[in-house]
Automatic annotation (TrEMBL):
<dbReference type="GO" id="GO:0046872">
    <property type="term" value="F:metal ion binding"/>
</dbReference>
<feature type="binding site">
    <location>
        <begin position="124"/>
        <end position="127"/>
    </location>
    <ligand>
        <name>NAD(+)</name>
    </ligand>
</feature>
<protein>
    <recommendedName>
        <fullName>Glycerol dehydrogenase</fullName>
        <ecNumber>1.1.1.6</ecNumber>
    </recommendedName>
</protein>
<keyword id="KW-0520">NAD</keyword>
<feature type="binding site">
    <location>
        <position position="179"/>
    </location>
    <ligand>
        <name>glycerol</name>
    </ligand>
</feature>
<feature type="binding site">
    <location>
        <position position="139"/>
    </location>
    <ligand>
        <name>NAD(+)</name>
    </ligand>
</feature>
<comment type="similarity">
    <text>Belongs to the iron-containing alcohol dehydrogenase family.</text>
</comment>
<feature type="binding site">
    <location>
        <position position="135"/>
    </location>
    <ligand>
        <name>NAD(+)</name>
    </ligand>
</feature>
<feature type="domain" description="Alcohol dehydrogenase iron-type/glycerol dehydrogenase GldA">
    <location>
        <begin position="16"/>
        <end position="162"/>
    </location>
</feature>
<keyword id="KW-0479">Metal-binding</keyword>
<dbReference type="GO" id="GO:0008888">
    <property type="term" value="F:glycerol dehydrogenase (NAD+) activity"/>
</dbReference>
<keyword id="KW-0862">Zinc</keyword>
<feature type="binding site">
    <location>
        <begin position="102"/>
        <end position="106"/>
    </location>
    <ligand>
        <name>NAD(+)</name>
    </ligand>
</feature>
<feature type="region of interest" description="Disordered">
    <location>
        <begin position="374"/>
        <end position="395"/>
    </location>
</feature>
<dbReference type="InterPro" id="IPR001670">
    <property type="entry name" value="ADH_Fe/GldA"/>
</dbReference>
<feature type="binding site">
    <location>
        <position position="133"/>
    </location>
    <ligand>
        <name>NAD(+)</name>
    </ligand>
</feature>
<dbReference type="InterPro" id="IPR018211">
    <property type="entry name" value="ADH_Fe_CS"/>
</dbReference>
Amino acid sequence: MAETTAIRAPRSLIAPGRYVQGRGVLAELGRYVAPIGSMPLILTDAVVKELTEATVTESFRRAGLPVRFEKFGGIPTAAEARRVADVAVERGCDVIVGLGGGTVIDTAKAAGDNAGIRWVSVPTVASTDAPTSALSVVYTEEGAFESYRFYARNPDLVLVDTQLVANAPVRFLVAGVGDALATWIEARAVQRASATTMAGGLATHAGIALARLSWDILWENAMPAVEAVRQNLVTPAVEAVVEANTLLSGLGFESGGLGAAHAVHDGLTAVPHTHHLVHGEKVNIGSITQLILEAAPTAEIRRFVEFTARLGLPTTLTEAGLGDADEEVLRAVVAAATAPEETIHNLPFPVSADDVLDALKAVEVLGRSVRAEAGLPEPQAPESLRTRVPTARMA
Ligand SMILES: [Zn+2]
């Protein structure tokens, strides 16, 4: 059997062609895009366009590139990716620049693949680890997880301007920390199970080490970085967290593997109750669920719950809008989280729907008890289930 395994699953690590991060680097975007294509299409939403248009236009002008913006439709569906690809083909574009949050970036990748051209990620928030990967999450029109879509290549360029990240609402950075903390929890489980990663092989030592490094950096820097971003400051802690959220977590999740945290996230998107949360916030509920399923040491779970609660991440079903959800709603979450193709089956032990249901219910009890013990306020239910944040619900 060992021979078969070796043939089926070699070790693999994949990565973007270039990663550039720093304060003000958006002004250099043209210089970095020019070697990749001469006819770029910039996919973005109205809010990000307003913030970046002058800088991007000047940067492209200096690099001798034409400036063509295309407005993102709002939800990263397969139909939206086809529409953007058609626009790119009609205009003779040879590279798509996804400028904004995770949803824009994932759509840019899908459209680039549809059109047979290259693509570039320019995240304006550090809310997810989507920018570096060779995959997109495809959503339904209703905003529920539909599937992962895999590409032959990672983006040719990922460029992150840390001043833009620091100017964005702090909630995005915090959500990115939630997404990035899951990376190590999931990668170590995938490694224990010798399961395949999103890169299509067993994890390399490098992939595992990057996932772990992301975790270590966040425990050290997340609190001061969040305080700095509240004041729109770019400090070394902010630079470290942006790198952990974007590059390290991106390489770590893709080449280290996903487990239960993201599967539970996907399950949570199946019910409208949770749609007020962004991706990394739902992932945090998933991370706690996975730690419970793994029977991680109690002290470790409690430390994780307290740390993420202090950062402002949801740690209870109440905050996820599911505090008074009936069994049927939770069953719908669990059914989606344990679908046969879900990454929850990468855990080193079998997981049933009942196991996940009870672990989810335990999240509520644990979250409340840790908050009480730590002197944190009781968890609050969302004020309105219709308060949706339009970007950044992506992997
Ligand atoms: Zn994610």
